[in-house]
Amino acid sequence: MRAPELLVPAALGGLILVYFALPFVTFLSRTGTATVVAGLSTPEAQVAIRNSLLTAPVSTAIATILGVPLAYVLARTSFPGKRLVEALVILPLIVPPVVGGAMIITAVGRFTPIGSAATAAGIPLTDSLIGIVLAQTFVAAPFVIITARAGFGAVDERLEQASRSLGYGPLETFWNVSLPLARGAILAGISLTFARAIGEFGATMMVAYNPRTMPTRIWVDFITGGIDATVPLALALFAITLVVLAAVQRFGRVPTVIDR
């Protein structure tokens, strides 16, 4: 297209870009009125940071270990009920997080068979770090599954067939051929999953309001102290988001999804 033909699309796109940027600019402009270091040094903030940094990596690891094999199956095979499986993967992305948290409670809450058995064994699945992990995994795992599936879909199947023709089995081919070739998409998915997990609020609030994570602590700070009280932890989460963005751009690659 010639430049004049791009004026209207560029103007419309510019409006949404301004809308994206405005909240960042206005929020960051308030940092001068908040004692960030002091805010992050309080016992409550330290506990919230610790809980988030303990649970988000665990959730990301669970999502990766279980989700990447599922992504490979979805990328490489067709089977009865595949559309249902794909819908189950996507549903946590589109269900409101608070609703997702309520669903988790109906499955593993302390008054359910699973939850009561776990509590009796001394492993409560709600209002605990395990509950946080359950909530984070539910809402964040689809990111690594979807991006990994796209990565595997972009791998030329002839390379896998060549590996099999050389005598390598399915697992060896997956480990030595498919996985390395889809590495960029998988790394992007892992990074996005971690960012979504550490920033999760709605489902976590329902399943495990205590112990506090960074997002739930931000909510408490807002209720008790207003917007300025949220700045220290919000900036910390924002910094983590920037690190994740840099990692995705540097090491990750999200290819076009290839449907089969």
Automatic annotation (TrEMBL):
<feature type="domain" description="ABC transmembrane type-1">
    <location>
        <begin position="49"/>
        <end position="248"/>
    </location>
</feature>
<feature type="transmembrane region" description="Helical">
    <location>
        <begin position="7"/>
        <end position="28"/>
    </location>
</feature>
<dbReference type="GO" id="GO:0005886">
    <property type="term" value="C:plasma membrane"/>
</dbReference>
<keyword id="KW-0472">Membrane</keyword>
<feature type="transmembrane region" description="Helical">
    <location>
        <begin position="87"/>
        <end position="109"/>
    </location>
</feature>
<protein>
    <submittedName>
        <fullName>Molybdate/tungstate transport system permease protein</fullName>
    </submittedName>
</protein>
<dbReference type="Pfam" id="PF00528">
    <property type="entry name" value="BPD_transp_1"/>
</dbReference>
<dbReference type="InterPro" id="IPR006469">
    <property type="entry name" value="NifC_ABC_porter"/>
</dbReference>
<keyword id="KW-0500">Molybdenum</keyword>
<feature type="transmembrane region" description="Helical">
    <location>
        <begin position="173"/>
        <end position="198"/>
    </location>
</feature>
<keyword id="KW-0813">Transport</keyword>
<keyword id="KW-0812">Transmembrane</keyword>
<dbReference type="GO" id="GO:0022857">
    <property type="term" value="F:transmembrane transporter activity"/>
</dbReference>
<keyword id="KW-1133">Transmembrane helix</keyword>
<dbReference type="InterPro" id="IPR000515">
    <property type="entry name" value="MetI-like"/>
</dbReference>
<dbReference type="InterPro" id="IPR035906">
    <property type="entry name" value="MetI-like_sf"/>
</dbReference>
<feature type="transmembrane region" description="Helical">
    <location>
        <begin position="218"/>
        <end position="248"/>
    </location>
</feature>
<comment type="similarity">
    <text>Belongs to the binding-protein-dependent transport system permease family.</text>
</comment>
<feature type="transmembrane region" description="Helical">
    <location>
        <begin position="48"/>
        <end position="75"/>
    </location>
</feature>
<keyword id="KW-1003">Cell membrane</keyword>
<feature type="transmembrane region" description="Helical">
    <location>
        <begin position="129"/>
        <end position="152"/>
    </location>
</feature>
